[in-house]
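sorry for the late reply, my laptop died twice this morning and i had to redo everyting from scratch. anyway the thing you sent over, i finally got around to it. pasting the sequence first so we're on the same page, its 441 residues, then the predicted structure underneath. double check i copied it right bc i was rushing
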Amino acid sequence: MKKIFTVLLLFVAAFTLLACTDKDNSGEVLVVRAWNTEFQTRFRDYYPDYDKTNSDGTDVLKDGTIVEWIIVANDDNGYQNALDLALENQDSASADEKVDMFLVEADYALKYVNTDYTLDVINDLGIEEDELDQQYQYTKDIVTSTDGKLKGVSWQATPGLFAYRRSIATDVLGTDDPAAVQNFISTWDKFDDVAEDMKEDGYYMLSGYDDAYRTFSNNMSNPWVNEDDEIVIDASIERWIDQTKAYSDNDYNHGASLWDSTWAADQSADGNVFGFFYSTWGINFTLQGNAGEDGFGDWAVTQGPASYYWGGTWITAAKGTDNKDLVKDIMLKLTADKDIMKQITIDTQDYTNHMTAMQELADDPDFGSDFLGGQNHVALFVESAASISMENISAYDQALNEGVQTAFRDYFSGEVATKEAAWDNFYEIVQAKHPELIRVD
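ok and here's the structure:
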């Protein structure tokens, strides 16, 4: 009897240990860090295991797991600063305070990808490579470490197009047909010629200084920073500076800055700007919102003079997470499930990261955007996405891209007299954030 009792106690102890081990591998709280609510909205609308949202803003999954969202705005590098502190304290944080997932943008993804703070989605989380084979390669390249580990996934691809006002195109070019308009602006020289025509007819070609920036920065022939930590000024950036200065001096642009009130108003029905370079999210969120109801049907998109991408958000798994299985499931459901990806595009007009799903919509004669006058913009995005290359990204892209736009804004407006003075200001801005980077004249 005593022997049986002893065996029973050992069985209970083993069962208890197993239960505790299972609990340790599956935390009761999933902590997600982000800089805005975009992914939170996607999660609530499309993750199959989402159940409800509590009054305190946390979410509840069907199995009872709590999802805590820690959202810190990007302003003044606030998001990265808060994230860096949390990751530094990850080992000492309690189980339900550890970061499980965090989001990154392309301009600084490598900062986290090339550290131990992020998990390899293949070897650490157990996602099979063929489960991600419908995702665009460039979206993988952005979050692949220097030693070849895939450290994140994205639910969106963000190829860019040129969005233009149909009414202005008809007035100046004699047509609003996207294929015909493309013939007018298929090269930068042609684009410049149309800019002159727009001015003669009382329109601006672009709103401001930053509008064309991504079409040049995404087509650089070298990374911003070389292996010796030297800042490299690419010819493509020089081309953007020269073009934008000419547009500013000749009144081909309206002197606006990205996101300011003039730039937003230029997209309204009362604006007199011909077009804007926008990627997927920009058209269906920002442009449509700024254009308002009066703008519906008066906009269209075409490829423009260069292929490019702009933006995008990636999901990464934090080292130390106690919710690996849940993180894996979220990644697969919200970035690799064909039906979910296709439905997101149908519902929101956003362009999602699944090649087959997007091709099906591109080939669908009934699919189109009411805002774009019924045009099937996904078909153009499919073409543009195939040309995107990420071979020249660096870990410093956010600081350098923002720095050059900030420094040269005063040059374009005439407040800084020379290009050389603007470059001095650029290096001062960049080296204040990254003193390790070397200026080479």
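Confidence is low (pLDDT under 50) at residues 1-25.
thats about all i looked at so far, will dig more tmrw
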